[in-house]
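Standup, Tuesday
Yesterday: got the pipeline producing structure tokens again.
Today: sanity-check two examples.
Blockers: none.

Example 1:
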Amino acid sequence: MAEQRTRLDTPLHKSRNPFVNRRRAVGGDDGAGQVAESIARFLGTPSFIIWLTVFCLVWIGWNTLAAEEMRFDDAALGFTALTLMLSLQASYAAPLILLAQNRQTDRDRVAAEQDRQRTERNLADTEFLAREMASLRVALQDVATRDYVRGELRELLEDIGEQTRKEVRKEVRREVRNEIRTEIRGELRSEVLTEVRSEVREEIRAELAAERKRRKRKERQARREFQAYLEEQESDSPEEE
């Protein structure tokens, strides 16, 4: 806690009780400096000038317009007490202002030190990033570039296109062959059917002709037998008579 209070860039812990905060500001290691800085800041405000002007006017008016028994700083003496008070205020104001300036200088020094450290960190980060970028560039020299990858992809696409064309040609040839085979088979089948039909017709015609001849032969034999039978009957009838 003591180290944190000695640093000018570390704020003190504030409590809700104003008397506790005032006791910490006055009783701490840097309490006098904080009180002096607060007084110096108040001396540089318009409210201090207004209050000091009102105080001087009241002082002068009271010691000028009031009764002589009630005056405590006679105007004939040149307001000696007021002059001493203003001189005392000025003598204390100058060191307080210097102390506040010294504290502000310390704060500026701390801020400058922090800015310097931040700048050094940024510079170190920038150098690290530059080294990393250089190492990445060296590593990317062996890596394929975009144009190279595009060229390889185009060659692959061309090879794939040629292979697909060959495969499509083979498939088309197979399909055409199958279609031609089916057509030829159909034509051959129709031709065979016509030939078979003609042959069957010829065979049927020959069979019918042979059947007719057989029938004619049978009819002739039957007629001959019938005539022979009639002749036998005729020859047998006169003998009986």
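Example 2:
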Amino acid sequence: MCSYLKKYNVYNFTKGGLILMNHGGPQNLQYAANAAFIASVFVDYMNATGVPGWYCGTQYTGADELHKFATSQVDYILGANPRKMSYVVGYGEKFPKHVHHRGASIPLDGHKYTCRGGFKWRDTQNSNPHNLTGAMVGGPDRFDKFQDFRPNYNYTEPSLAGNAGLVAALVSLTTSGGSIIDKNTMFSGVPPLSPTSPPPPPPWKP
């Protein structure tokens, strides 16, 4: 958990605030979304067990810092970034229109297209005829730059791993779940952070 926080200098961040867990490689959002989920669940666990923070080496870190990290990554994905762009299709006023996805990019015109036959739709500059609503794309590069260009899948391709992480992060961060999510019982099978005390010794007998 300590490595997610910028002050410990484990991972680089873009100027816009996106954590770079792919060592400068592409498709950063899938890693950021899953990190946000893990961080948020860890904070839930801390709160459920009454632990306000932990030590990263000799430095104390409050659970609220980790919660802010998780929120910042999801906010970036949803539009709080230098491009003011949502990287989730259909969310907000500005989002990717050239998603690298076969079903979204090929029109329903009564014809069946082979894999090679679909290339002409992949390579067209027209927007997708179908919105893949709710899909998070690969996202920007390490300079916060993004190309809404279908053939460049590093920017525009959604992934199951990334979208699963985003959905999980949103569920964990939301406060609208009410009684659906019980933070006090969802971790009942997880052992406590500190080891349990050993049993008392047997009574002394002379």
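Quick observation on example 2: Residues 2-180 form a domain with the Glycosyltransferase fold (CATH 1.50.10.10). The chain has six helices and four strands.
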